[in-house]
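Final report, Chapter 2: Outcomes

The project's central promise was a pipeline that accepts a single protein chain and returns its three-dimensional structure in a standardized token representation, suitable for archiving and comparison. That pipeline is now operational. To close this chapter, we reproduce one record exactly as it appears in the project archive, with the input sequence first and the structure output second.
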Amino acid sequence: MKDLKSVVIECVERAMADVFGSSAKDAVIYYLETKGVSVRDTAERPGKFIEALYEIFGVGAEILERRFVNDIGEALGIAPHGLKLQEIVEKATQHSQHQHKGNSQGGDPQPDP
């Protein structure tokens, strides 16, 4: 199974490509990187990433954020309803740690209530 960081990066890049097209996605990513924000850091700094998108697109960034959240939720089996990017990444991190803890104890991981 892929780690959380890889899943988040894939979902964000795929959503941006679907919304903008490949060339424009690359241009947005380049611009973000000139501002010190990288897609590779999205799992660790989701708030900073979204903040940078809001600086570029204003309220249009909400569309991207919803898409990121839905794609991440679908990829990880987490209900994304009403969550922001930072919230779903935090929830996924907790879920991942819970599963890792269950696996390291030799038992089956228990689903979140």
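Archive annotation: The chain is about 70% helix and 0% strand.
This record, like all others produced under the grant, will remain available to the consortium after the project formally closes.
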